[in-house]
Amino acid sequence: MSDPIRFVPIDVELRNGRWVRVREMRLADREEIRQAFGRLSSESRYTRFMAAVRDLTPRMLDYAVGSPGARELSLVAEIDAPDGIDIVGGARYYVQADGQSCEFAATVVDEWQGTGLASRLLRELIQGARARGLRRMEGFVLAGNWRMLRLAERLCFSVDTDPDDATVKIVRLDLTTGSSKNE
């Protein structure tokens, strides 16, 4: 795996005509991440964490905004707000122990779901993983999370049932074969 490549912030117009700025997460985003979590519905929290999560513990928050390194890429989508910015979505991958594959996760605040934001964040993660020489990307998705499963299929991920848990699907993408649809 090569050294980390810095993500250059980009402004993105979404399907609904609204704009977001996609950039790497920073340690200073801690309060904004906490606020974004507070804007998630209980269903969105459940589909992201695969459990009922009411609050982010300080440890979970530290982990979320921890200093990124060569083994991950953490992106946020922000909008301008009266108090500075609001984070409306985020996505991240972690490089696995084999150094060849990564596991991803993504979350979009309810009001911004269905706008193409999750798709854009995942496409940026895919490009970042390829640039770092990774070979595979995978994620674990609740079988009932049809939006994420549909998105994974549109981006050419394979979808299989987790052999250890029928309520979970494993989505996988071979990063060595060309580009994903809609990239």
Shape: globular
Mean pLDDT: 88
Major sheet strand order = 1-2-3-4-5-6-8-7
Helical fraction: 25-40%
Quickly count the helices: 5
List low-pLDDT spans.
none
Q: Cα-atom Rg, whole angstroms?
A: 16 Å
Order of helices and strands: EEHHHEEEHEHEE
Describe the structure.
With 183 residues, the protein is of the alpha+beta class. The longest helix is centred in the last third of the chain and has 15 residues, at 117-131. A hairpin with a 2-residue loop joins strand 7 and strand 8 (165-174). It is 27% helix and 34% strand. Strands 1-2-3-4-5-6-8-7 form an eight-stranded mixed sheet, with helices on both faces. The protein has five helices and eight strands. The chain is globular and about 45 Å long.
What would you say about this model in short?
This protein has 183 residues and is an alpha+beta fold. It contains five helices and eight strands.
Question: What's the helix and strand layout?
Answer:
Elements: E1 10-13, E2 19-24, H1 30-38, H2 42-49, H3 58-65, E3 72-81, E4 84-95, E5 101-108, H4 117-131, E6 136-142, H5 146-154, E7 158-162, E8 165-174
Parallel strand pairs: 5-6
Antiparallel strand pairs: 1-2, 2-3, 3-4, 4-5, 6-8, 7-8
